[in-house]
Fold this sequence. Notes:
The protein is an alpha/beta fold. The chain has 9 helices and 6 strands; from the N terminus they run βαααααβαβαβαββα. The chain has helices spanning 23-32, 36-51, 63-77, 83-91, 102-111, 124-134, 156-166, 180-188, 220-223, and strands spanning 9-12, 115-120, 142-145, 173-177, 192-196, 210-214. α8 links the parallel β4 and β5 (192-196). α2 crosses α3. The two termini are 15 Å apart. InterPro entries: 2-HAD (IPR006328), HAD-like_sf (IPR036412), HAD-SF_hydro_IA (IPR006439), HAD_sf (IPR023214), PGP-like_dom2 (IPR023198), S-2-haloacid_dehalogenase (IPR051540). Belongs to the HAD-like hydrolase superfamily. S-2-haloalkanoic acid dehalogenase family.
Amino acid sequence: MITPGSVRVCVFDAYGTLMDLSAMVERFRPDLGDRAEPLLKLWRKRQLEISWLPPQVVTKADFWLVTGEALDEAMAHFGLDDSALHTRLMRAWLEPAMYPDVASSLLRLRAAGIKTAILSNGTRQMLDEGVRAAGLGPALDALLSVEQAGVFKPEPAVYKLVNDRFQVSPQSVCFVSGNAWDVHGAARSGFQVVWINRTGARAENLPRGTAATIATLADLPALLGV
């Protein structure tokens, strides 16, 4: 359970939490047809798998580079050699669709005096452009990228960026993510963690350390008592 009145900062993962990656399927179905969904799933899978390699293997926390490498693999798997399509697919990460519950929920938290931030594997440029495209800037106090830590989630140094930026204890931070591995990493860092399960996915052993589970961000303000 979230401790009532204890949260001073609410931090959100970006991709799959605030930003709707599944919307890319319909966006690129005219180009890819029935291959749209499997290609995008493989792309996302490889993107994460590369980011999870040990830091000594992935020497630079550059999510844009990792995303491009993963797309190269996914397109090759499906026999696609189309540089223009590659460019447009990459561009989609700079103008992602936001879930419809995002802006109103974040603004409600800020109106109640809770600071809001994104903590993401995305580069600062990816986050800046995505937030700008969605008009979400007024709902956020900070954008935190793993570039500042030099490693990807779920390395502890990434979550420490929140404490350093806001000068708060881990227990005063609510961290929200739709990704089980991210939930686990944040809980290990001492945050009060909320798993947003938008699709009603069956719970696994992960996410361990979950303080609460919600189906929509619209449920978050009440959960925090605001």
